[in-house]
Amino acid sequence: MTTQPKTANITADDVAIAAGVSRWTVNRAFKKDASISPKTRDKVMKIAEEMGYIPDLRAASLASDRSNLVALLVDDFSNPHKLVMLERLTTAMRSRGWDTLLVNTLDANDTAPALMHASRRRVDASILIGLQFDDDVLETVQKAHNIKKLIIFARRSEQENTISICVDDRQATLEIANYVADKGYKKPFYVAGPRTTSAHLSRKETFAEYWSNTFGTDVQSLAVGAYDSILATNAVQTRFANVPSDGLPDILVCENDAIAMGAIDAVRHHLGLRVPEDIAVFGFDDVPQGASPNYRLSTYRQPMTDMANYLVDVLESNDTTNMDRQFIGTLIIRESA
Amino acid sequence: MTTQPKTANITADDVAIAAGVSRWTVNRAFKKDASISPKTRDKVMKIAEEMGYIPDLRAASLASDRSNLVALLVDDFSNPHKLVMLERLTTAMRSRGWDTLLVNTLDANDTAPALMHASRRRVDASILIGLQFDDDVLETVQKAHNIKKLIIFARRSEQENTISICVDDRQATLEIANYVADKGYKKPFYVAGPRTTSAHLSRKETFAEYWSNTFGTDVQSLAVGAYDSILATNAVQTRFANVPSDGLPDILVCENDAIAMGAIDAVRHHLGLRVPEDIAVFGFDDVPQGASPNYRLSTYRQPMTDMANYLVDVLESNDTTNMDRQFIGTLIIRESA
DNA sequence: AAATATGTTGCACGCGTGTGCAAAAGTCGT
DNA sequence: ACGACTTTTGCACACGCGTGCAACATATTT
């Protein structure tokens, strides 16, 4: 970059003078539903364009106490589903005038600092997307800082003063369990993700409950340390490496696709078995990679676009009491189960 | 969310009064290298903490003309490598005090509007990460708006007034070509991504040039419409579906891993051949998924962390002429080639 | 103890815009 | 052409903090 032509930043005042109107009229021209005549707006916009004027949102935000900025805290970049979420959220938000401050939560203890940091930019809301935020942390954070809106996305939270937008986990899990039972699987095994101290019933527990109620048998399970395929592969491999074939499950029901794909890899490449003939696998999320002919993963799709749009509704509403909402997704059946 | 306790926003003035110092001293306490005695700083910080004071970066930015905000424009969320980049970039930036404004470039024509939109927040720099930004667009954008720093990340650009931070494509491709030749492959085929109007030699051209110079034979190729595995699978399948086996290549050299993984799927599941015995596959980027036992993808790793750190160096430097830089990565050899 | 160096604190002014209201200009019917 | 509307425009004040310098306080030297 060479030096700019020393153009002392152009303000609305400059444009106003050039256009022969007041500064306020200039800013009105840029404001969507402002009361201004089309004629003057055109004139102002044209001159503004020529002069290269761009309204300063810092000043606007300072004066209006609304930033139109939303912090998006992400704590786990290894799950490809995050990319889908990011895409859907940013699309929905930007198309409706909301900007995204992407905050990488470095580790589990960084949630509070990260949230506080975002507050320095006076974000209108903070969105938590990811699962390491357990309810304890939220409580602490919520008390300490005056967060305007705290939205938990794609995860259930019972926390007070928090808006949770997610899929109905219970319903989803029951649909999956139903499918698994209908297809005649007898020995399901649940592969869960990292334990969170969330208050509500986890997918694993819902599944186990259903199975126990229906067949009177317990469902065994294991927990992977993170939503990461490689870790899942290792976990599944070590868990079943020395298990005789009649002790193996006939289906691995996984908490999400990242784990499910890792599980498939383990079944095929470490246990030397076939999917789904020997062991079937079921996922959750419907990540694009799951559609690959390698995986053909049966899974459950969350209505991400609807959820993202609803999130913007929440951003735009003033009274956000009771705006928690659970969405219903759809079973995606491919060949893995 | 219930209504907050109507706490009219706490400012430095409030803290100053409570602490018996001037407002400026309060802000100094929050400023890293400010000239302030440890004693007063502690006192101020303690009171600020109690009162829940959080400095307002909008006002700070307005007054200082430095926002410490960087726009990150992303135009393609289907390539899992983006997730890696996002993670590395945000980690490097946040750890050194830079915030990220994530802007989803809705389509190819949205680059200019997106950049302009970011300017409204007076970002200190804009980073382009993704390949749909061709040089024509950049030129237009550059002229129209007073962008402070325009950084092209992970892609070469010859554009004036632009800082390009990327891997040395030529060197990388030559390393790959060398490896392919050394291993005795005779009939390589190049699977490229979408064509960009970039001025410099593409990876495909470099590879073809090497092959032609070394063996005197041309390298055939095909271009996939996007860096997307599914599209790549389809493209490879249709290209080779009716080709007799002696007309098939012995290795597919791919422009990146997303395409390479799609190519592997096509070879195995549509052409019914083995990787690498019948057709080998080579990638680029080293995405985590490539390490899966399903793919065991041989590829080229870009030094993302170094590149991200260097990017922050650029953010922090005043004179950014001649800061273009090309990094050297490393060949990652697994079983796919 | 005075003189000098060093560290610490206070302040006038400016950064660029929104809010709510009042004044001015335009519209319409008769 | 007049009154009663409606639309459009202008404005005082506020938003919260940084800059650069001057004043003040404390530590160091002679």
From TrEMBL, chains A, B:
<feature type="domain" description="HTH lacI-type">
    <location>
        <begin position="10"/>
        <end position="64"/>
    </location>
</feature>
<keyword id="KW-0805">Transcription regulation</keyword>
<dbReference type="InterPro" id="IPR010982">
    <property type="entry name" value="Lambda_DNA-bd_dom_sf"/>
</dbReference>
<dbReference type="Pfam" id="PF13377">
    <property type="entry name" value="Peripla_BP_3"/>
</dbReference>
<keyword id="KW-0238">DNA-binding</keyword>
<dbReference type="GO" id="GO:0003700">
    <property type="term" value="F:DNA-binding transcription factor activity"/>
</dbReference>
<protein>
    <submittedName>
        <fullName>LacI family transcriptional regulator</fullName>
    </submittedName>
</protein>
<dbReference type="InterPro" id="IPR046335">
    <property type="entry name" value="LacI/GalR-like_sensor"/>
</dbReference>
<dbReference type="GO" id="GO:0000976">
    <property type="term" value="F:transcription cis-regulatory region binding"/>
</dbReference>
<dbReference type="InterPro" id="IPR000843">
    <property type="entry name" value="HTH_LacI"/>
</dbReference>
<dbReference type="InterPro" id="IPR028082">
    <property type="entry name" value="Peripla_BP_I"/>
</dbReference>
<dbReference type="Pfam" id="PF00356">
    <property type="entry name" value="LacI"/>
</dbReference>
<keyword id="KW-0804">Transcription</keyword>
